[in-house]
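Researcher: Please predict.
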Amino acid sequence: MTVRSTAGTPDLSSKDPNWWRQAVIYQVYPRSFADADGDGLGDLRGVTQRLTHLAALGVDALWLSPFYPSELADGGYDVDDYRGVDPRLGTLDDFDAMAAEAHRLGLKVIVDLVPNHTSHRHAWFREALDAGPGSAARDRYVFRDGRGTHGELPPTDWQSVFGGSAWKRVPDGQWYLHLFAPQQPDLNWENEQVRADFRTTLRFWCDRGVDGFRVDVAHALVKDLTEPLRDLGAPELSGEAALTEFAPGTHPFYDRDDVHEVYRDWRKILDSYTPPRTAVAEAWVPGARRVLYARPDELGQAFNFEYLQTGWDAAELREVITGSLADARAAGASATWVLSNHDVVRHATRLVLPPGTDTDAWLLSGGHAPAVDAAAGLRRARAATLLMLALPGSAYLYQGEELGLPEVADLPTEVLQDPIWEQTGHVRKGRDGCRVPLPWTTDGPSYGFGAGAAWLPQPPDFASYAVQAQDGVAGSTLELYRTALRLRRKLLDGEALTWSDDVPAGVLRFDRSDGWRCVTNLSVRPVDLPAGEVLLSSAPLEDGRLGPDTTAWLGL
């Protein structure tokens, strides 16, 4: 692995007002990042203590998943108070200290915002339960009378993302909507109090120096609440995958055209700060619809989930990359790329599962049906990472991928925390396998995560993935990420690429306008490299040739 010097490269994240267009953002899942007080749960002081790891890695920003007061019914995405900190994770002073240290290190801070639903412990929802049917307090949420002789049936056939009906009945007989867990009642975005309160929340965090927001379930805020509410006719039409069955913008509760009024309103607030605050939408919608959220007068960026969902196939990847770049240009945004996050099987494992694998069934098997070749998965993940980091736009990294962490598929069912497990009647194991706390050291009760055991058990082989085991070790995945990010900062300029068509089957090759080239071999045999100095490769070359499941960057 040959590397060209990157000494003296500019700090784009702090000096470029458009830093976000080509940034590398690192997702911190606070409960699983670092535990400073030894209670087994990650916290804000733990994040602060480990920020030097992110600075050394070379990322531009950290995105902090929810740290707000929460029952943790859905990993913190059930929010009790949007302008507070969960006492188990720290205080507002701890948040301020963390943000100050991040900024001192040249890191931007992005926080998660969860506007589709609150926690059922939120003051508004408690007030709604006490106030009763027809009250102004209930109008902040989506309450309806049930169907049937005595209102004993849900108002519609809408289904929850986590399984089962999307409606829950309360003691006085009414039902409330929850597109996710029952502990997460959906807000009514037709209510002006809801809109005003989130404006206040945006200003609250912007005033504390937050640099941007990741907007959870950005496509679901606005619903068609016209009476009578529409049945969908089939449970599967409640899922995001069913959007193609509806005319664009007409699904009863996903990706409705009216949702964009919310984000145009937010953009006025974000642009009132100097520099303007950034935002990125989590919108599980088709690409042509997704880029609407990324328009300059709305959030500015949207996660590209088509890329994450694409298999390890050269033709498919090229098609998705080409389409994503075109969509981003049309919207006036920059493209985004992501391989892993807190909701999906880690890509060091996912990329070697056979095409068409039912990941729910695979997780239920404890990761044994089919068995996974961990070494092959890591090799493919490293190649996928270099490919992603060579693309124009922003790259979002998920904590632990820089260590090559695999999915922990064999968690005992008695330790599972994800509500999906119970809500689906033990049919889907859920997302805990990608949320297992990070290993920092090669020994200790939680491999340096904290002084005691972690809230989810770590497998023994996590010791070999620990930061301590890889730090300074040539060829390690951690050092590959560090080198790639240093080199990317020097090389990346412009937001275009040019594909090469004269390549062997199974090979992707493109040139960047700034004088370098990326080659990825997704085939089963080594291929010759084009002319150019090898700057970095995800695996050693094989007699000067690029081996299978390998990416190389070349200077022209």
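Model: The radius of gyration is 23 Å.
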